[in-house]
Each structure stands twice: as C-alpha cells, then as structure tokens.
Amino acid sequence: MRILLLFLLLSAVLGGSLAQKFVYMSLKKSWTEAQMYCRHKYTDLATITHMTEQTKVASFTEGNVKVWIGLYRVNNVSPWIWSDQSDFLFHHWAVNKPDIHEPLQTCVSTNDYGWVDKFCTEELSFVCYSAAVKKTQVLRVEVESHENVNDPEVKKNVLEKIQQALEGNVTLSWRNQSDGNVFQKKQQNKDSQHTCH
C-alpha cells in the first residue's frame, strides 16, 4: 500500500552568497557626497573586512589612483569607523599612514599600495557596495513513497535530487514539524478521493 505524504521544504537562498558586491564609480565626489551617493543607489561606501575584499577594491584602481572607501573618523583623536557601522577589525594602511601630522585627514582612500588618510573634501572616484539579499521561500510538496521518508538517509537523498534539479546558487533545508518529523501523512477525505489544500 502506498502512503501519500506531505512535507515542507525551506530556505532557498537565491542570488549567490551573502558576500557584498563592490561597484566602482568613476564619478569624482568628496567623501561625504560619495557616501550619500552609495547609500542612495547601493548600500554604502565599501567596507573592507579582509584581504580578499581589499584586493577586489584595489583592482578598480591603477597604480597610485585612489578611491574613497567607507572608513573615516570624526576627528584626529576618535577611532576609525566604517560608514555602515561595521566593526573595524581589519586594516591595510600604506607605509607611514595614517598621517599623524595632518589631523584633519579623517577620511580614507585606497589603491594598490594600501589605505591613505585624506581630507574629506578632496574629490575622488569611489567604491560602493551592495549587500546580497537572502530570499527565503517555503515550498509545499507532495510525495508518494513505500519507504519511511522521515529516515535521515531518505530525507538526504530526496533533498539531493531536488537540489540537482535547481539552477543557480540555491541552498535547501528541511523544516521540521512540531513532532520532529519533516513529512506528515496526508489526511484523506473518506467521502471522496479528491482533497483540497
């Protein structure tokens, strides 16, 4: 006898990983104008949290050409902070930077050689970032099986088959019901073979 079962499938993460996407803007703007532009069109000025991101942002520059990034400080004695308020845990200062002899240089640009503190009113090209969006979709699917579909190995195999049929960078996971199972028996209407959902 075949048993008709229902299950819920959760979490399709669409559109790639959650890493940020950097966008180079050739427009020349002050740091504050660049920040406003990035916040309006994207997420914010670039926040750099590790060397891979630094390399990516620096790839937009040629040699000594500098671009604004989202690092700044309110004055020469305040700590460096990112425009999006991310923690300042990584740095890649150029030689002899930041410049302790120029206290009014409170905004940061970067190039192939590292980060340089500059006057915020200087007009430079800049790099924005756009945060990836996590999209969650819940699917309700019916399956017929002679096996115990709540068995971990069976659930794994079913999930792999569905994953193979999907395109793009999608991550799937099961949603457990309150009883701990993924699959639930479908209630059959005794008066009819047809059921409504």
Q: What is the element string, with H for helices and E for strands?
A: EEHEHEEEEEEHEE
Question: How many angstroms does the end-to-end distance come to?
Answer: 23 Å
Question: Within the CATH hierarchy, at the fold level, what is the topology of the largest domain?
Answer: Mannose-Binding Protein A, Chain A
Unreliable parts: 1-18
Number of strands: 11
What does this structure look like?
- This protein is α+β, with helices and mostly antiparallel strands and 197 residues long.
- It has two domains: 3-15 and 134-185; 21-130, Mannose-Binding Protein A, Chain A, CATH 3.10.100.10.
- It is 17% helix and 28% strand.
- It has three helices and eleven strands.
- The protein has helices at residues 31-41, 51-58, 152-165; strands at residues 3-10, 21-29, 44-45, 67-72, 81-82, 107-111, 114-118, 124-130, 139-145, 173-174, 183-185.
- The strands form two sheets. Strands 2, 3, 4, 5, 6, 7 and 8 form a seven-stranded mixed sheet that branches. Strands 1, 9, 10 and 11 form a four-stranded antiparallel sheet that branches.
- A hairpin with a 2-residue loop joins β6 (107-111) and β7.
- The longest helix is centred in the C-terminal third of the chain and has 14 residues, at 152-165.
- The protein is elongated, with a radius of gyration of 26 Å.
- The model is unreliable at 1-18 (pLDDT under 50).
